[in-house]
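seq:
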Amino acid sequence: MMEELRDLYQEVILDHGKNPRNFGHPEGANCEAHGYNPVCGDTLTVYLTVDDAGVIRNAAFEGRGCAISLASASMMTEVLIGKTLEEAKKLFDGFHRMCTGEDVDPQVSGVDDEDAVERLQVLSGVREFPVRVKCATLAWHTMQAAAAGEHECPVDPVQVTTE
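struct:
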């Protein structure tokens, strides 16, 4: 059963990596940041359209990178649309903990969207390959920088700058 689950996860990652959702530079984006992972060369720009109430109305990205990096960005944009910036931060925190080896209990983490957490579980396998954690979290760090208007990301070796 575990092998079947691993195969399904790999299929989902490959699908999102080859056919990323929300890929492109949307009109009207009012938050933008560029992220770069010097370890493997992945580079992404994340675009958010955030309304006056702090709700993410659109999320998209452009860039190039490995299948994990692109799949993570694609899946992230899908789950963020309609979330508040506060909910996005909670999802980021839960996703980061999940990728670094901690289990995420939505009730404990404050993440109200169990479906989003379950969908993102596909990427939890990166915890077995610590160098790949940076690939999976690049888009998320970049999204956080875009939402906060930051020019640099506090987590190395991922470098994030806003445009």
